[in-house]
Structure prediction request, 215 residues.
Amino acid sequence: MKEGPRSNEDSGAIADATVVFDLGGVLIDWDPRYLYRQLLPDEAAVEDFLARICPLEWNERQDAGRTFADGIAERIALFPEHEPLIRAYDERWIETLGSAFDETVSILDELRARSPVYALTNWSAEMWPHATARFPFLDWFEGILVSGEEGLAKPDPRIYQLLLERFSLEKSRILFIDDNVRNVTAARGLGIDSIHYVGAKELRAELMRRGILSE
Prediction:
């Protein structure tokens, strides 16, 4: 007889939950500092540029579907003296990509051996092909929802609902992993069990505690 769902008594989590991963900051090291450290004279200049001229909030609009052409034009209009640096965000975007987080990729590999795995990522549709060309493990996912392709981005509740509908997932049977507290909070607010990712070691320990990975 097939066993029913196994639950962890302490957390209430379903031990055979389907796991949904965020990508940037969890499996892939993405940071625009990698590019701008090559273009600006010191760390202070890099931080000023990324806080004031091309801040994360601006980049998030590309993740939500705005084209880089429109985003770049907006910032050039505001800061014309920095036009070459602003254009670099688009033209040299691939240099913002670091390596994969190998220890987390190993966890992903273990998880996919037990059940299908999925991904929900905030990523520009235009830049997404750079990721798929560089990181073969993206083929391991049963499905990936890319915010820029959908015109929605975390923490908008609609993108979590779209994830469930697109891949026929049951909210009560998935576990979502993200490094952004805002995104984790939004998922939990919808009743989705979630882990705030702070590192591979901590993630492995939490998955073992829940009975999702074995020692």
The two ends are 26 Å apart (CA to CA). The longest strand covers residues 174-178.
